[in-house]
Amino acid sequence: MGDLWTWEDIVHLPETEQPEIIGGRPFARATPRGSHGRIVAQLARQVGRADDAGLGADGWWISIDPCVRLSPHAIVGPDLAGWRKANLPELPDDWPLDVRPDWVCEVLSPGTAHYDRSTKAQLYASAGIPWYWLVDPSERYVEVLELDAGKWRIHGCCAEGEVPVLPPFGGFAVEVGQLFLPGKTGT
C-alpha cells in the first residue's frame, strides 16, 4: 500500500476490519456498546420520519452506518447520515457512497468523543456537509452544529426532557429523552 490509503487499500479487508480513512490514514472503528446501538436506532426511528415516501422531494434518505467516500483519501462511516431527496432523487446502492451527505450524526463514546469532535468534525466541514449532530450519552444531550463559512457554528444544544424541532429536519420534533436508556449514561 502507498503512503496515502484509498478505498482500494481497504475494500478487500474483512468487513469487521473496515477502517475509516481520514487524510489518507486508516482509523480503526471501535465496536460500539449496546447502548450506542440503541441510541442510533432510536434516533433513526425519530429522524427517519423525514424518510417518508409521501414527502417526495421535501423528504430525506436516512442511512445507519453508511460507508461514504468524501474524497479519495477520506472514507467515513458516520453513525447516521442523511441526503435531501431534492439533491439526490434516488439513493444509490453503491459501496462506498460517493455523494456528500447533507447531514451526519455521531454518537459520542469515551473512546471516540475527541476524534468525533475534532478530526471528523474538521473533515465533515471541509467536505461541505451543512449539518452535524453530536449525541452525548453521558451528558444526555444533542448538539446541533451548522456549517457557516466553512466553520461549525453551534445552532443549539437540546437536553433530555426537551422535545425540539431540530434542523435540518422541519415539521417534527425529536424526543431527546427517548434516545437514552433510563438512568444510564455512557456508550
Strand content: 25-35%
Distinct helical segment count: 3
Task: Indicate the low-confidence ranges by residue numbers.
Answer: none
Order of helices and strands: HEEHEEEEEHEEE
| Radius of gyration, CA atoms, in whole angstroms | 16 Å
Q: Main beta sheet, described?
A: 6 strands, mixed
N- to C-terminal distance: 34 Å
The CATH architecture category equals Alpha-Beta Complex
Keywords:
187 residues; alpha+beta; tt1808, chain A; 10 strands; globular
Report on this model:
With 187 residues, the chain is of the alpha+beta class. The protein has one domain: Alpha-Beta Complex (tt1808, chain A). The chain is built from 3 helices and 10 strands. The strands form 3 sheets. It has a 6-stranded mixed β-sheet, with helices on both faces. Strand 9 and strand 10 form a beta hairpin.
Task: Write a brief structural summary.
This protein is an alpha+beta fold and 187 residues long. Helices cover 17% and strands 27% of the residues.
